[in-house]
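Data deposition worksheet. Section B asks for the primary sequence of the deposited chain exactly as it was used as input, without tags or linkers unless they were present during the calculation. Section C holds the resulting structure in C-alpha cell form. Section D is free text for depositor observations; keep each observation to a single sentence. Incomplete worksheets are returned to the depositor.
Section A, Depositor: J.P.
Section B:
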Amino acid sequence: MRNVTAGLFHSVDGVVEAPNLWQFDSFDEELGAEMSNWIDRTDTVLLGRVGYQEWAGYWPNADENDPFGQFINPVAKYVASRTLSGELEWQNAKLMDKGLEEFVAELKETDGGEISVCGGISVVRQLLFAGLLDSLTLMVHPVVAAKGRHLFEPADPVTRLNLQDARRTSKGNAILRYGLPN
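Section C:
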C-alpha cells in the first residue's frame, strides 16, 4: 500500500497559506534536505483546484534549472476539483475521475512511490479527517504571519495525532511529522 503524505510550511500562529510572504530568511539547508528527501520519495502529487491553477501558471515557465520545477513538471499530478473540466494543460496533470476520498483510497492500492499532497489546504484536511493521510509534516517557521489561512478550522473535529518525528533546524525551524494513531 502506498503512503499519502503532506508537508506544509507553517508559521508559529498557524498560517499555512502563501509562505513566500512570511518565510523570509528562515529557509535553511535542513529544510532544503527535507524537500529533497520528499522529492526523492514522491512519484505522484495531489493538488486542489486553487493550487493547481496557481502552480500551472508558474512552474511550466519557471527556470528550467530549478530543482522543484524539474520535479513538479514531469511528475504525475491529480487534481481535485468540482469546477474544472476537460483536459488539463499542465504536463502529466489529470482531473480526478471520482470523489477525492474514493480516488485516493484506490490510488493507495496501486504500485508506486509516495503520494504527496501539494497546494491544497482543504485537500490535506479532508484526507486527514477521512483517515487517508499517513503523515503530515509541519515545517514551523519562527515567525508570526498574522494573516492567512490556517490548516484547521474551528468546526473541525477533535482528532488525536501521534508525533512520529521532531527536529530543529539551524535557523530555528521545527520539522514535526504527525500521523494518525494505529
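Section D:
Residues 29-41 form the longest helix (13 residues).
Residues 59 and 146 are 28 Å apart (CA to CA).
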